[in-house]
Design brief:
The complex is a heterodimer of chains A (267) and B (794). Chain A is built from seven helices and twelve strands. Chain A has 267 residues and is an alpha+beta fold. The chains are: A alpha+beta (267), B alpha/beta (794).
Amino acid sequence: MSGKAFLVDTTKCSGCRACQVSCKQWNNLPAEKTTFFAGPEYTNPAELSAITFNHVKFFPIDRSHPGKPLWTIMHKKCYHCEDANCIKVCPQEAISKVEGWTVIDQSKCIGCGACVNECVYKVPHVLDETMPKYGAEGSIQKDKSYKCHACMQNKRDVPLCAQHCPTGALTYGDRTALVKRARARLKEIAAEYPRASIYGLEQYGGLRVITVLKDSPEKYGLPLNPEPIDMHKAEAIRNTYHLISLFSFGLPSLKRVAYRISRSMVG
Amino acid sequence: MTNHWIDIKNADVIMIIGSNAAENHPASFRWILKAMQERDAKLIVVDPRFTRSASMASLYAPLRPGTDLAFLGGIINYALGKNLIQKDYVTEYTNASYLVNPAFTFNDGLFSGYEPGKRSYGDRKTWTYQMDTKNIPKRDKTLKDPRCVYQLMKKHYSRYTPEMVERVTGCPKETFLKVAETFTSTHKPNRVATIMYAMGITQHTVGTQNVRALAILQLLMGNMGVAGGGINALRGESNVQGSTDHALLFHILPGYLPAPDVKAHPTLEAYNNSAPKTEDPMSINWWSHRSKYTVSLLKAWYGDAATKENNFCYDWLPKKSKGVPFIVLFEDMLKGVMKGAFFMGTNPIVGGPNANRNALAMEKLDWLVAADIWETDSSIFWKRPGANPAAIKTEVFLLPAASSVEKEGSVSNSGRWAQWRYKAVDPPGPEKTRGKSDLDILDLIFRELRELYKKEGGKFPDPILKANWNYIPEGEHEASPHLVAKEVNGYTWPDKKQVKNFVDLKDDGSTACGNWLYSGSYPGKNMMARRGTSDASNKIGMYPEWSWCWPLNRRIIYNRAAVNRKGEPWDSSRWVVKWTGSKWKGDVIDGGPTAGPEAKNPFIMNNEGVGRLFAPGKILTDGPLTEHYEPMESPVANLFNSQKVNPASMIIDEVRGQFGNAGQYPYIATSYRVVEHWQAGAMTRNLPWLNELVPDMFCEISPTLAAAKGIKNGDRVAIYNARGTIKAYALVTERVQPLVVNGRPMEMIGMIWHFGPGCAATGDACNQLTPSIGDANTMIPEFKAFLADIRKEA
């Protein structure tokens, strides 16, 4: 698998969240109106959303870890699966690969939520209008799905999240080289983190976000062998949708209804 | 920093104590991680909480807030007891071998000469060396004389056993021993440790002694002056270094010239005579040049008016009749001593200690000017919760200030690099009303003031009317930072030719210089604007063509200590300087290029020329060696001696009744920052993206304290003591653990101090709870250790 990728090295992440903020800055995304902390420790907001494309999760400290207490802080964004479920299920063919990156074309998106339902990593989101937010008014439209596009829609040489990372925990470069670097890093940290692992080499044909973890992937909610999508079902839904949506007069709201009917018909 | 940010990559051991660098200096971790990855460096983090810095550490050691001296004293004892010191370095380059006055004593926490009624050591006349007939300190290079500093230290620190460290600090003995072993592994010439510290070290009643302990350790290890070593103060703002260099504090003039004192320095002659002296031919004693810097400064300020005949207008210079640090300033304000105040980039009702009292003090002002990029909490103090605006007479003016990208000028980072910045955009809004740079604001005020003096006269108009103040280039209408920078560099008088550096400065009135330390930054070309990326010949990451660094573009200070007496680097794989027999190679050598390593001692700013393990004479107010005292508010007795708090710390009578004890307020409280907000929050609490991350005032407590108080994660709590009550959210976290102190578990309440009543995201200010007491030397407030209680809010 050639092309570009991100390397997330959680052993180098100090949790400054420059990635989370830089992404909002470059993409002009609103802030969520949060209270206290929505997730463990300093995690805020709780998860990725239609207005949060980069997210940093602080896991609770593990004092049982051999040698020293272990506090993992993990950067998360769209993993840009080579074999992406979201692309397969999108009834509008709004999601495609651009230079290897999985990108949603919001002008085609009807906000049906197919990609949202089928992403095992819970990455894409259709804007929840009830979510309190402020700043950057109007930059995100309702009934459209959003997620990280690796700065393909708002192009720059190095995505701002990686460029702003002060510690080198988040880097951007050729995937082959980054995989090599991840493997070398695993050896370097073996003594300190005996259960360390690399995530993203194989899943869904290989991910474009490779993560070096201090412990096993399951510990961080990352499935080692994620279920592949049921292609027969996905095609049946799509075929039904294409038929029904002929009666939608091109209106996104009716198209969404058409998608919902198709989904319930196929079961 | 004696060294600089990039140099951290050269360390074998990095000890972060009293700092949470991952959060407050995130970029430092690029270099820490590089050292860890490429040199297998070990990172030690010593902190009461398991912080984001601790998450990256090879070795984490907890300690109770306010017990750094017990912990560091323990490492000093470990090094001295096991002889893990760099012997040649210590003998040659420190005062370990100097013999101390036989009358000097230390007994039960008190050094000789203490005057209890005054809470002072007075003239400290026994804290001195024994002198020979030439008035040079006597030495015993075998370090065997019982009166030599080394032997006195061995005895003094022998009480700091690992057992005592554990009992006092709460750090388990095994963990402490691992830290001591790892750190002292750098006593070998080919191993180096760096120490990174910040306000967790300084903001204590023993803050200065905390820094001293770090310096003592680094001297014993031979880690000063070398690559990957040094003691590195991480500055809390982008230009704290610059503002200190340029005399932000009450006790100094620009370039660390002491502020003249009414009694001690009535004349220029008396002032000049107070400069450090030496008879030792080995000592460079750089401060012997002080009169040149003082006279050049007076010349820069008073220009043609400053003549030899009138002592260069020394009489015009304000003299201090007492020290006026923050706490005293606000006590004076509360007494109504001052009519008005200017707040530029400061927000005291969030950032100052005992914030409720500061707010009351501000009510006494007739007028207040706040210059900031937004409305600050302090500029709206008159409508803070609980205040009655109708009863407050203070007239408040809010001046719109330009932000950092809307003005040009220099910023000096912690590594002493003065970096020139350009203006990227105009401040928003129409030209007439938009924000102005600080320089422009000050220039407009000064010129207006001068006009008023011209028109109306005044008690003492000359210093204003005759000041050398011309910063507007011809044909322009705004003050230029280049003209200021040129004056700071210095020029000849009266023909105004830029001097090359401070070596050119004279005390006869033929040169003017705004800050001798920065002389060389603008000798013609603006050196601070340089952006060269080639490294120096020693290839240790000094990048001497990038910006400019004081003094004289020297990237590592005290670099004469990087070599032995023959001029050979202690470690040739990361050499800083070396002596070729006739000249120096590498970094700009300290103390002049001609003197060889055998001829002169390396610590050129000390009149002995060597590093001070023992600080003689009047250098410090509270002791020539370090000693543990408890914070002003502490839950336990001092196990090291029968003094409770630092006996030389000034206690202000008016606030005496506000100090609490553990019977009233049982929990240790401490304050800190998070990466998501900036200082008192006036810049960040208006930014949605940052408020999204940390929207509210919160405290951190352990699960055990939470259980004892019926508090759950996310609950609202009240935290209180005699100075105030604040509300916060409780973050219940395993990262905070009770520490066993003298056999008893002690709980802690950690609080961020970014919040206040103003801005978009509001919250109570932690500093409503912090005490009005400070360090015995500097009066920096004791923000880091005090007492409070906590309860769940309904």
